[in-house]
Amino acid sequence: MRARLAAAGTTFTINGEGNGPISALVHALRQDLGIEVDVLDYAEHALGAGEEATAVAYVEVRSHGEVRWGVGMDPNITTASMKAVLSALERLGVELGATAEVAGTAEVAGTAD
Q: Could you tell me the pLDDT band of residue 6, with boundaries at 50, 70 and 90?
């Protein structure tokens, strides 16, 4: 998985491997940014029907003993899932590297390699 993150005017790319896109993102956050995070729960559903449906993902994460939920929406379920993880990290106040924090406008584009 490769994800391009944009936060606080900074854009950077992280890479990770896992048994799925969320696992790969968590690995990349740990490896490339030193962020300790564990995914505790995950759920998803679609808003609408057919090809035009929007995917919604909910992720419960723990970092340094604190637990938060995050939500992500996107036409692509993989991207929605990644956005949910970043949303949860934002709610925890976790910084993305030394100079950038997750902002409300953080964008994630991911591909499963």
A: confident
